[in-house]
Amino acid sequence: MSAHIANSDSEDGQTRRDFLLLTAGAFGAVGAGCFAWPFIDSLNPAADTLAMSTVEVDLTPIQEGQAITVKWRGKPVFVRHRTAAEIEQARAVKVEELRDRESDADRVKKDQWLIMVGVCTHLGCVPLGQKETDPKGDFGGWFCPCHGSHYDTSGRIRKGPAPKNLSVPEYSFISDTLVKVG
Amino acid sequence: MSSGQRAEFKNPVVSWIDERLPVFSMMQKEYGVFPTPRNFNYFWNFGAIAMVMLITMIVSGIVLAMHYTPHADHAFSSVERIMRDVNWGWMIRYIHMNGASFFFIAVYIHIFRGIYYGSYKKPRELLWILGVIIYLLMMATAFMGYTLPWSQMGGWAATVISGFFTAIPVVGDMIQTLLLGGFSVDNPTLNRFFSLHYLLPFLIFAVVFLHVWALHVSGSNNPLGIDVKGPQDTLPFHPYYTMKDTFGLGVFLLLYVIVTFFFPNIFAHPDHFVEYNPMVTPPHIVPEWYFLPFYAVLRGLTFGVNPYIGLSLFALIVVMAPVYCGADKKTGLCSIICVVGRKYAVLLLAIAAVAFALGYLSQVEKATGGALISLPLSNLVFVNAKLAGVLAMFGSVILLVFLPWLDTHPVRSARFRPLFKTATLLLAIDFVILGYVGMETADAALFGVIPLLWIGQLGTGYYFAYFLMLLPWLSRNEKAQPLPASINEAVLKA
């Protein structure tokens, strides 16, 4: 039977069979992919994890020179009330000398309030420098104890293995003393 | 698993089963009369020892899982409950905890044995690769197990290690979020780590089965590294090597038991006894000791690939081209590169050294900010330090897969290759030194003067040079000492 078909139009029959084989294979692959996707995507953050994605911070108790850490999306967010000297120190740096070039003005909405995610951009440790007694690194900002990254008073990477500045989350001032992060 | 020839069994039950499912014949063939080189030394014990450790880990792990709660709120206290309240819980946990370390000790000795005696060479390449896969699976399993007690050390190890993936350009953060099931290490992470930590040992078991199967096809290597020529070179596995393995296993287990009962926390750190707090990183986090050398490689790459480092690597590739390509047969561009590489080898090595020094120094930051020396284009970093560190770390493990094709010297055993022997012993020392560097803090110094970072960087350099430059070069240029005619002859002479 198959020999008969192959004899009658050998070349066309071969091509048609190849086409059917490849199409069936392609559909099988797409089907397997579609089947796999829900399992892979189920590993992404669930709805309840995503729901906890904003936090409001009251700034009134934070004195000049002090800093607090708030939890946002399971990560620490640093809120620092900077002194005039710290702001000046951050502004004095030449932007073109930085590894991740960002001016201090681009990183804050109000000069005295520096708000950023307190997660080292190297491998995700929480840098030290929030408390008075913490080591603050060579640039007076933060120091990551894991692999020795130094951040300045604007949270910019200055020394060590981290590639980027501490990231600034989306936030907005609801009033002069209330900030919404996220 | 060829079971063509069946053995004769006197016991009628055994015989009845064997006729229908020849498991007894198989055991007889593979572990009873199996012809094994007669000149094994005690290095050949560690495969069997590793197997026993795997079974110990699976058995103790299954029981621990019956008492453990994989939830962020309860994990830490459920482990404390195992330690204090569960009958024999303390012992089972200490067996599991220290068992991981002793499993790795056995496997590292086993791997070193493989390298030193050239066990990865033809016809055992696939056997070797299966072994590397087992090692990779062990690393994944051990890392996830480290996280389960939900201590400061474990939680932050998970943060740092999942952070490796953020080094991947563009999709890195998405991959990390997918792995963690959130934006930080939290309950979803713990749940999936527990699931995988339970699954992977059984995968390891399956790959061990393939590893042993492949071993029984090619037969064992031996300290002389020469092939078995006939029955006079071998002994039946039982009772000769069942006895030798049992003795070695006994000594090994004795050490394991001494640590488990008398120094159970010798491999632990204070931060293992503090519950995980995602807001505070402990001042000094380290992975388990068996990852420390690779951790030192990761931290050693404080510089990325800028044009100078790139030029240095390019010069090294040209120098190595004649070694890799086999210049004589090739035509076209490859042969030109080979000719250049051969003719100007010294000059190219000098260029590589100078370019590397420039590239390195132009990325060292001064305390006051800015680079130590500033050069044109030195800020043009193609691969940043973070990605370079992660690539080097993964690369240092993956390199092992390619070992059979990096070292193609026809003589297997280091006994007959003095240069290879020296280089390999240095590699072992280098590995230990890297481990020491990985254990210390990022800014530590030897005798308070020499930064450990430099030692880590030199060690990393030697590690890669050994595999990528020394081995290929020695393969082509080292003259081996004369080999004995047969295992039997060598044994009788000794």
From TrEMBL, chain A:
EC identifiers of the protein: 7.1.1.8
Keyword tags: 2Fe-2S, Cell membrane, Disulfide bond, Electron transport, Iron, Iron-sulfur, Membrane, Metal-binding, Translocase, Transmembrane, Transmembrane helix, Transport
Any one GO cellular component localisation term in the record: plasma membrane
Chain ranges passing through the membrane: 20-40
One Pfam entry name: UCR_Fe-S_N
Catalytic activity annotation: a quinol + 2 Fe(III)-[cytochrome c](out) = a quinone + 2 Fe(II)-[cytochrome c](out) + 2 H(+)(out)
Domain Rieske: 80-180
GO molecular function: 2 iron, 2 sulfur cluster binding; metal ion binding; quinol-cytochrome-c reductase activity
Membrane topology designation: Single-pass membrane protein
Function: Component of the ubiquinol-cytochrome c reductase complex (complex III or cytochrome b-c1 complex), which is a respiratory chain that generates an electrochemical potential coupled to ATP synthesis.
NCBIfam families associated with the record: Rieske_proteo
Family that this chain belongs to: Belongs to the Rieske iron-sulfur protein family.
Protein name: Ubiquinol-cytochrome c reductase iron-sulfur subunit
Gene name of this polypeptide: petA
TrEMBL record, chain B:
Topology class, membrane: Multi-pass membrane protein
GO biological process: respiratory electron transport chain
Cofactor mode of binding and number, as noted: Binds 2 heme groups non-covalently.
GO molecular function: metal ion binding; oxidoreductase activity; quinol-cytochrome-c reductase activity
PROSITE patterns to which the protein is assigned, alphabetical: CYTB_CTER, CYTB_NTER
Binding site for a ubiquinone: H216
Binding residues for heme b b562: H96, H197
Compartment list: Membrane
Binding-site list for heme b b566: H110, H211
Cofactor(s), by name: heme
A Pfam family matched in the record: Cytochrom_B_C
SUPFAM superfamilies per the UniProt record, alphabetical: a domain/subunit of cytochrome bc1 complex (Ubiquinol-cytochrome c reductase), Transmembrane di-heme cytochromes
Domain Cytochrome b/b6 C-terminal region profile: 227-485
Protein name per its UniProtKB record: Cytochrome b
Species annotation: Micavibrio aeruginosavorus
